[in-house]
Amino acid sequence: MIKLSEIFFYKWWYIRRPLKWLSPLISIFEKKKIRKYGSQPSQYSPVFIIGVPRSGTTILYQLVTQFFNVTYFNNFVNLSRENLYFGCWLSHKIFKGESHNSYVSNYGNTKESGLMAPSEIGNFWYRWIPKDQIIVDENSVSIEDKRAITKNINSIINRYRKPLIIKNLYFALRIRLIKVLFPSAKFIYLRRDRLYVAQSIYLARIKNSKNPKSEWWSLNFPGYKSLLTLPIEEQIAQQIYQLENLIQKELSEICHENIMEIKYEELELNNIEKKFKSFIGAEKRKAFTFGQLRFKSGNTQKIDDAIFFRLKYELDKIFKD
Questions:
Q1: Which of 48, 53, 49 is nearest to 240 (CA)?
Q2: Residues forming a β-bridge with 284
């Protein structure tokens, strides 16, 4: 039986192949544009959504890009990842800035929501950023590659004259690099009740790992391999604890005014509109109100009592608050 993911692969293959093959020619077209728009300071600060795995960063990415008049990278742009500027230009020509109406994802992957859905465009970033390095700072990327990243992103911001929203889970451990690339960058740090983060990570490991108790899943940190002999509940508690500490440490070097902390549990409240509008610097899309966005908190128990309370015990023990 053909899987849904395979259907999307073959469907998008016909778009991806020509864009990849024509990349050298497309580069000639976009080179002058990148030089024109990317060589000057950006008119808006790029906004990065960060958080620990399973904290809701993808749905926040979807909500913000659906509700506010901002620029973001969609799945179509990801198909043209060798030519980011061209991909954005063609996407705007085809979709004309219409709403993506994407509210579902598969562990951050939004392909099933269509070409307009927000994307992490991981392969674009890995052109310059080391893929297998846990913490990437300003010393991990060459001067030439830093310049290339900055010019590509600035060209998009200055071309469309809107704030650019960026979400890629691994940027939670790239904050020092982002600060160097974009000194005025802003960060939306999403926090979620740790118990439900832990439950969601547990379920993800069960679903995505052949050996859930001994195989790590998602974002890691220095020394994580030494924890693989511990009970799975303790591993997950340590993952949340260590990642939160690393994020806080990196954010400590960012100007307070450029950080907004928000709780996952607050995303249903109507007063979010004013808070985001002021921080991002964008107006809402016409004819939308926050209450119209389809979102419901997933903070309900979904696992056996024994595992659920074991996770709670490990979290209480390590955080002691």
A1: 53
A2: 68
